[in-house]
Amino acid sequence: MVDSDMRAGLLTNTQRVERTGRRLQEGLRTAYETEEIGGQILSDLDHQRDTLQRSRDRVCGAQCTSCCSSLPPYIDKILIWKK
């Protein structure tokens, strides 16, 4: 009786340890997947930031060019005199 109770207890503990090991492996796998997805998101955000910065620079450059090209020719002299 004691022997079978001990075996049952050992079997229960062994099963519990195996379940815990599987949960840990699943948690580790999830952590690795999350890290990989996070890295991809950071890379995407970096590319988007570069795109936005280039677009902003182009818009600012275009606005300056169109603004300056619409000024009358004598405005350059006025701007120089004010310095």
TrEMBL record:
It is found in: Membrane. It holds the Pfam family V-SNARE_C. Keywords: Coiled coil, Membrane, Protein transport, Transmembrane, Transmembrane helix, Transport. The keyword Cell membrane does not apply. Its main location: membrane. GO terms for biological process: Golgi to vacuole transport; intra-Golgi vesicle-mediated transport; macroautophagy; protein transport; retrograde transport, endosome to Golgi; vesicle fusion with Golgi apparatus. The keyword Phosphoprotein does not apply. Belongs to the VTI1 family. This is t-SNARE coiled-coil homology domain-containing protein.
